[in-house]
Design a protein that fits this description.
The protein is mostly beta strands. The protein has one domain: Deoxyribonuclease I, Chain A (4-Layer Sandwich), CATH 3.60.10.10. It is 14% helix and 37% strand. The chain contains two helices and eight strands; from the N terminus they run E-E-E-E-E-E-E-H-E-H. The chain has helices at residues 92-107, 144-147, and strands at residues 8-12, 19-24, 27-32, 44-49, 56-63, 66-73, 76-84, 114-120. It has a four-stranded antiparallel β-sheet, with no helix packed on it. A four-stranded mixed β-sheet has the order 5-6-7-8, with helices on one face. A hairpin with a 2-residue loop joins strand 2 and strand 3. The termini are far apart. This is Craniofacial development protein 2-like. It holds the Pfam family Exo_endo_phos. One of its GO terms (molecular function) is catalytic activity. It comes from Sitophilus oryzae. InterPro entries: Endo/exonu/phosph_ase_sf, Endo/exonuclease/phosphatase.
């Protein structure tokens, strides 16, 4: 049996301006950032290993906080959503705009597609003894991003 590994990396808060794709060492790099004329902030990237580039179908630079890359692997389309959510300190309009854009991306995904959401969602989920993910090792703080 052959082993198969997907090497996919999502980077957030890249501060890389503009939108595009490039070959970067052993990866294909897809990014979406702020307009080139503005001060660098936000930015998100998805890197896929060149070895799996044959599965690449397309990418979409949604905005400076969301980028999608679609791969067709063994006949199954998988949409990777690279994201960088606004922090809790961001104004409500920025948060609402981000979540509206993310919701739109999710509603456009076909039922036949798989989805991977990766990135920095800027949630602080607190300490939860009954949590199998963080348990007692999380921060004391909860923020609005955790509450949905």
């Amino acid at each position: 049996m052959a082993r198969f590994s997907l090497d996919i990396v999502v980077l957030s808060e890249t501060k890389k301006k503009g939108r595009g794709s490039e070959h970067l060492d052993n990866f294909l790099h897809f990014w979406s950032g702020i307009d080139k004329a503005k001060r660098a902030q936000a930015g998100v990237s998805v890197l896929i290993a060149k070895i799996i580039s044959k599965f690449y179908k397309n990418y979409n630079a949604v905005n400076e906080r969301i980028v999608t890359v679609t791969l067709t692997i063994f006949g199954l389309e998988t949409v990777i959503i690279g994201t960088y959510a606004p922090t809790d300190d961001s104004n409500q309009a920025e948060k609402d705009s981000y979540y509206a854009a993310l919701s739109k991306v999710l509603t456009e995904i076909k039922p036949s597609q798989e989805v991977l959401i990766m990135g920095d969602l800027n949630a602080r989920i607190g300490k939860k003894e009954d949590s199998k993910v963080v348990g007692k090792h999380g921060e004391d703080v909860l923020n609005d991003s955790e509450r949905g």
